[in-house]
Amino acid sequence: MVYARKLGTTTYTFQVSGRLWRNSLIMVDRETGTFWSQVTGRAIDGTHRGSQLEKIASVETTWKKWREAHPETALLKKSEAVSASHYQRYFDDPERMGLFRAQWLAEKMPGKTMVYGAAIGPHALAVTDEALEDRLAEGTLGDAQVVLARGRDGGVRGFVARAGGESITFSRDSGSGNYSDSSGSTWDLDSGRCVAGPRSGERLEVVAVTPVYWFAWSNFYPNTQVIDH
Amino acid sequence: MIDAGNQIPQGTKVYASQWRIDVKRTIGFAVLMGLVGLPWSLAERPEPQVVATIGGDDVYQVLPVGAIPAIDEPEFVSGAEADRQMRPKEPVLGVVVDGEARAYSLWQLDAHEIVNDEIAGSAIAATW
Questions:
Q1: Do B89 and A62 touch (CB under 8 A)?
Q2: Which of A130, A154, A109, A124 minimizes the C-alpha distance to A39?
Q3: What are phi and psi of B27, to 5 degrees?
Q4: Do B124 and A72 touch (CB under 8 A)?
Q5: How far apart are CA A147 and CA A189, in angstroms?
Q6: How far apart are CA A210 and CA B36, in angstroms?
Q7: pTM, whole model, 2 decimals?
Q8: pLDDT in tens, B3-40
Q9: Which residue of A has its CA nearest to B123?
Q10: Which is nearest to A151 in space by CA: A128, A176, A181, A126?
């Protein structure tokens, strides 16, 4: 997950607080000591309690796919050799779900199922990795129709499916990997930009997507909409 | 004579639930993997403390602040040097801001969790 560090006119720097809440990282800013949830970007305790950091769309994928889709990419330099995840055993064990019990755990599917979560205010939806595969998933967040799509770089991005005040339904073009709408416009859902047709140049509003284990997402959003097929 | 099979030595905590045992195992595992280098041994490690309850869920202090060090002055490589540092299937967190693409190895972020970064003039926090 990626967040803007600027709130109002102040730029914050974040540390790892060593605290866990709902089985997820709590960040703490150096400037005010406010505690922020990594999953929601909301301040849960301290001076800025109730404030919300702006989410910036990001993806999880493999280096190979990312590098092919973004050949000019910069990479955070490694100062030491790392050749595996510290947490691989944790990832591989279906029984180990975080460290602590949270009050909510929706038992709709196994806790370690990987989902793509998106939220606007109190509204949340989760799409299973299996359900998404290569296609597009359509859901609702409050009043907004949203789509989640897997891009050429393997990452999943979300958008509000609306342009020029109208709702859009997308269908995938075979071959190009782009999507068409009923106006005959062509959309690139890696960037959310309309690349051809009457809506050419328009941009969809971005909805940040969080790849997350189901148990953690349901710790935060027990009433989340689920798209699993 | 003490029968070790039947008696619990004084001062030993009896765990009420599997959850707490799991906590200890997981933290112990992290320490064994060198994830966190702390000044005290595992035997003396304090239990995670509930420091607050927010929205009905407890907040646990598991490690001291900054025990997992965030990266504040990130450096970057690209091109062939980036390829040399990475494996093809290595998972990354990827972000594009104003056309500028950046990737962070998730294996590397295991030990840092937060990068205080700036892309195309925008201050961002990449978190894992």
A1: yes
A2: A124
A3: -70, -40
A4: no
A5: 9
A6: 26
A7: 0.83
A8: 333 333 333 332 333 343 344 444 444 443 444 444 33
A9: A5
A10: A176
